[in-house]
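dumping this here before i forget
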Amino acid sequence: MFDKLSELMESKGYASFYSNPNNTESFAFGRVLAMTDGFLAIYMISPDGYYDGILAKRVADIFRIEVGGQYSKGMSILIDDSKLPTMNAPVDTDNIPAYLLHMSKKERQVIAIELINSGIDDIVGIVEEINDRCISVFQIDSYGHADGMGFCRPQDITQIAYMSQSEQRVLKLWEKNNTLKNE
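structure:
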C-alpha cells in the first residue's frame, strides 16, 4: 500500500482512500500531498469538486485505494484544477500532524482532531500551544461558540482535518458570532 501511495503522490493523481473498517463504503477523495512512514497528507476534494481542506491520516489506517472508477470519472468532470487553491507539500514532511497543528496556531485556522481511532472529531478548534507532551486547543462548537479548552497527547492523534468545509463553517460562525458581540 505504501508504494501505491508513493506513486499517487508522485503523479499527483486523485484517488479514493478508505480507512474506516466499520463503514467500508466511506472514503476520502483527493490527492496525496506528502507522506512519511507514519502519516500522509491528503488534499481533499468535496463531492461537489471543491477544495475541502487537508486531511492527515495514519498510513497504516488506509486499507483500500481506488483510482479510475466511476466516482473518479465523475469527479474529474466536476473538478476545475484552475479554481482550486494551490497547495504545496507541507514544509515539514517529517511530522505531518505537527505541521498542521502549527499551521492552525500560526494562521488561526480551525482543525478537527481524532484521537485513538475514535471515528469522531474529538477536539475541534484552534491550536493554542504545542509541545512534545501536550497539545492545547481552544475549542469551538459546531455553532461557532467557545467550548472550553481541549488537551491531548500528540501520540494519540490518529487524524487531523485542517480547514475542511466543516472546519471552514465553524470558523465562519465563530468569526460572525464574535463580530456580532462587538457591535
